[in-house]
């Protein structure tokens, strides 16, 4: 379930600019795993993949990139699992 929250947050970030056009999007969703990639023309990139572990717990790895208001690139990598959301910001 946590991966759905992370996924929803990433989509909110990606679509915050309604004028952005999709340059690339692909996804693969299966019962026990998924992959998702999105790139917009406003320099936002999102990618994540997850695997079901122990019938109830998902382990999700992902990253997203965007340009901050000051013009600097920001990249966040993360893992989300049964212990929580663990981001690392690379500014």
Automatic annotation (TrEMBL):
UniProt organism field: Drosophila willistoni (Fruit fly)
Recorded superkingdom: Eukaryota
Gene symbol of the encoding locus: Dwil\GK21650
UniProt keyword annotations, A-Z: Cuticle, Signal
Entry protein name: GK21650
InterPro entries: Casein_CS, CHIT_BIND_RR_consensus, Insect_cuticle
Signal peptide: 1-16
Gene Ontology molecular function, alphabetical: structural constituent of cuticle
């Amino acid at each position: 379930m946590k991966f759905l929250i992370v996924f929803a947050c990433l989509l909110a970030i990606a679509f915050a600019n309604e004028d952005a056009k999709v340059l690339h999007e692909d996804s693969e969703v299966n019962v026990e795993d998924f992959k998702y990639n999105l790139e917009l023309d406003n320099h936002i990139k999102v990618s994540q993949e997850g695997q079901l572990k122990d019938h109830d717990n998902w382990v999700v790895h992902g990253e997203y990139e965007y340009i901050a208001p000051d013009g600097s690139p920001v990249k966040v990598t993360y893992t989300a699992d049964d212990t929580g959301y663990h981001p690392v910001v690379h500014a």
